[in-house]
Structure prediction request, 788 residues.
Amino acid sequence: MTIATHIKAKLSGASWIRKMFEEGARLKTEHGVENVFDFSLGNPNLEPPEAFDKALKDAVASSSGNDHAYMPNMGYPHVRRSVAEYLSQEQRVRVSENDVIMTCGAAGALNAILKAILDPGDEVITPSPYFVEYQFYADNHGGILKTVPTKPDFTLNIDALSETVTQRTKAVLINSPNNPTGQVYSKASIDALGRLLKEKGRKLNRTVYLIADEPYRKIVYDGCTVPSIFESYNQSIIANSYSKDISIPGERIGYIAVHPEASFNKELIEGMALTNRILGFVNAPALMQRVVASCQGSSADISAYARKRDLLCNGLGECGYDFVKPPGAFYLFPKTPVPDDVAFVKELQKELILVVPGSGFGGPGHFRIAYCVDDRTITNAMPGFERVMKKFKV
Amino acid sequence: MTIATHIKAKLSGASWIRKMFEEGARLKTEHGVENVFDFSLGNPNLEPPEAFDKALKDAVASSSGNDHAYMPNMGYPHVRRSVAEYLSQEQRVRVSENDVIMTCGAAGALNAILKAILDPGDEVITPSPYFVEYQFYADNHGGILKTVPTKPDFTLNIDALSETVTQRTKAVLINSPNNPTGQVYSKASIDALGRLLKEKGRKLNRTVYLIADEPYRKIVYDGCTVPSIFESYNQSIIANSYSKDISIPGERIGYIAVHPEASFNKELIEGMALTNRILGFVNAPALMQRVVASCQGSSADISAYARKRDLLCNGLGECGYDFVKPPGAFYLFPKTPVPDDVAFVKELQKELILVVPGSGFGGPGHFRIAYCVDDRTITNAMPGFERVMKKFKV
Prediction:
C-alpha cells in the first residue's frame, strides 16, 4: 500500500509517453541540447511583450506589503474589472467583474469549472484530437470525458456531436485554436453548436454548458479571427490564460468568465469561487493578477509564429508530408505515412527529432509538432524529417 | 440541473459561516472599516521581510523572457536544492532536491499529496480542533476525514489517535503550530505518534503516512521550538508554505518534502508531480519560486506577533475569558462562556467584533481570534469583549 491505485495506473498508463520523454532527455545528454530538435512541448519561445515587462517592473516598484496578502478568492476587484472590460470588447457581450474569477492558468480554471458542475458519472464531450489533460481534468472530479471525432480537416462535426449528447451530458468542452491541430472553429460552426446545445437542453430539460478553453485565441494567422463564444450561446463559460499569448506559462495566471445570461449564473460563480478555493488554488497569484490587469490585449510577436509555421509547412510539404495548414496556435498535426504513429515517432527520434505521437491526443496516425522553437531548429531538422519520410514512403 | 449536487450542498452547508461574513461586510459598510474589529481571517498584517523585497526586486531586474516559461512540473532544480538545504538543517535529516516539489502554497501541497495517496474510502485522521479546509481536501479526492479530539489543552491525545487508526487509514494529518488553537506539539508527543504509526503499520501491514502541515513553523514564542517531524518518523511528508512567515499568502508559494527514507519514496514523488500537474497547478508560480529560493529562513517580525498575543491574552484574561495561552501561530481559541458558540459570536458582532465560531473548526464551545491585526484593533476591541463576557457570565 503506497500511492493510490488509480494514480499508480495513471503513472504506468502514461509510461510510453514518459519513456519517449526520457529517451529525449537521454539524447540531449548524449548529443548536446543544441543538436536535438525538440518539438515536443508547447512552451512558447518568444519573449513576453514589452507591456508585460513594464507592467511587472511597475507592479514590483509600487508594491507595498499588503499587495502580497490574501484578496477575495475570486481575485482583486480591479483586476476582474479590467479583464471584464477587455472581454466585453472581445466577445461583443457585456461582461462585468462579477462574471469573472481569476485563476491559476487555464488548467486551474478548467479544474475549478469541472469540479463545480460535475456530479459522479456526468459526461463532458470534447471533439478529438484533443488536449490529453482533459481526460485527467474530468476524471479528477468524477466525470467522464467522451470524445467525438472532428472532420478530416479537424473542424467540428456537428452531427457526430449531436449523437453524443445525452441525459448525462453536463458540458461540451472545445479548444479553438486547437491543441494539437491548430484548427480554428468557424463562426458558422460555433453558431450551429450553440443551436444544437440549446435544442438538446430544451429536449432534455437541462442546461448543457459550452466550455471554451481559449489560451491560443490571440495566436492566429492570415487574418483569421476566432469567433465569440458568448455571442453564439449564452450557456457558455470561458477558460483563458495568459500563458501562451504573453509567453508566461510558468506564472500560472488566467481566468474564468461566465456568460452573464447563463442559467444559475450566480450559483455557478459562487460554486467556482468555492472550488477554486478548496482545490487548493485559494486565489490566483497576487502579483501576476496586478500585472496582467495592466497589459490586457497585448501579446508576444505573433508574426514570428506565422513565420515559423510557414517555414515548417513549406519544408514538410516539400518532403511529402500530408497535413492541414493550421490557422492558429503553434502546433502542426501531420499524418504519419504509416498507421503506427509511435513507430514513426521513434524513427524521428533516431534523427534527434522529438515530437509527440497523435495517439497521445486521441488522433492516431498523426504526430504533433510544437513549432514554438527557434527558426533554425525547424530548418536544421528538415533533412531528418525528409530522410524518415523517404524511409516509410516507398 | 446546474452546479454539482455536492457543491450545492457544500455551499448551503457553509451558509451560516457565509452569513456571518456577509454580516461582517455589512457592518463594515455601515460603520466604516476602521470601526469594525475584524479578527476573522488569518491574513498576516506584518510587512514581508526586507530579504523578500530585495529578492523580488533582484529577480525581476535579472529576469529574461525564459524565466516565465514552463520548468519541470516539480519546480526549478536550483530552487528545490535551496529548499532541500534549508530543510536539511531545520529537520536535521539530509534531504535532497529530489525529495522536494514546489507547490501552490500549502493548500496546493496538501491537495497534491492527498490525491496521490487516497483511494476512494481511504481515511485521513486529524486531531481536532482542526483547519476546516482539511474536510474539503480529503473529500476532493474521495477520502474521508476522521477527527480525533485533542486533550483539553489542545495537545495530542495519542491513545485516542491509536483507537482511530484502522485498515482504512492512509495518513495522519497534523498542523503544528495549530490553526485554530496556536498549540505546538512537543517532541515527546511527535515521537510517541511516530512510534504508534510505525507499530500500527507493522500490525496492519501497510504504511501509515504522517503528513505535517507546517506553515506556522517559524511563528513561535517564548523560545518554543517545533520538533522535527522527519527525525521522529520516516514515513512522513511535509507540506509547507511561505504565506504566513513571509506574509505573502496571496502569492501561493510553498512545497512538499518527502522523507528520503519513506516507503516507495520515488513512486510518491512521481505520483505527486503528476497530481500537482493534473489538478491544474501544473507548477508553482515561476517568479515566486526564484524569489523564495533567495530568502530561505527569513521571516516577518515575529516579535510583533508575540506582542499582539500578550496584549490580547492579558486583556481577555482580565475580562474573565478562559483560554490556553498559545505558544505559536497567530490564533487564540478561547472558550465561550455558554455552549452555543454561534450565539456568543453573534453577540460579539453587535460590538462590531468579528471572530469565527469554534464549531467551524470542530471545536464547539470555543471561538477563534486571528490576532494578525493592528495592536490598536486589539486594544480598542477590549471594551466590547468585556461587555459581552459580562452579559453571559452572570
Remarks:
- Chain A has two domains: 5-47+300-392, 50-293.
- Chain A has 14 helices and twelve strands.
- The two ends of chain A are 52 Å apart (CA to CA).
